[in-house]
Amino acid sequence: MQETDKKQITPVELAAAMMQFTMKSIDNSWDTIKPVAAAYLKEPVLSEAKEEELLREIYVAALALEIYCIPHAFDAETARLVSLGMGEVMASEHLAEHQLSESIRGRYLPRLEAVNLKAPDDLALALVEEAAFILYDRLELPLKPADLSHSLLWAKLLPFLIQLVGKWPILSAKFDVQVRTS
Fold it and tell me: What is the dihedral of CA 9, 15, 17, 19, to 10 degrees?
């Protein structure tokens, strides 16, 4: 696709598109991890409330990774604008009530930054692993093993999270972010 074929999009629209793309990916893949999550409940049936809770935690983890990766996905000015756009979307009335940004800022971003500071050979994998560790700890499933090496949930969770992230390059291929407003 040539640059001229890309649709112009504002940073806010791009942030909203990424969030929708991520949620759709989670919804489309949920059935692959749902039975494993249910196996770690005392009654192996997910209530609607429990399912919503688990989906929310997965969404927060995936969204935290996408937000953290904004500076790695764009040039400096575009990254700044996309970050501002993301902040605007997260502060919107519809999303503010879910307190997603509090969880992302408080739980995920500091630990992702600590991973980045260690300069691992494969930063992308290290970031996803860290987010998966946080997510595993956050999932309230009473029968999950404390030791990850003995957990089917962990074995399924890491590849599940890996497939959910990395939306910025896909969106960048389709859209050109408007750097200046007219």
Answer: 180
Q: Is the pLDDT of residue 33 over 60?
A: yes
Residues 6+ apart with CB under 8 A from 73: 79, 82, 168, 169, 172
Q: Count H helices, E strands: the chain?
A: 10, 2
Q: Which residue carries 């939306």 as its tokens?
A: 167
Residue 179 has pLDDT above 80, yes or no: no
DSSP state for residue 46 in the 8-state scheme:
-
Out of 27-31, 42-46, 91-95, 100-104, least confident range: 91-95
With contact defined as beta carbons under 8 Å apart, do 36 and 153 qualify? yes
Q: 66 near 167, Cβ under 8 Å?
A: yes
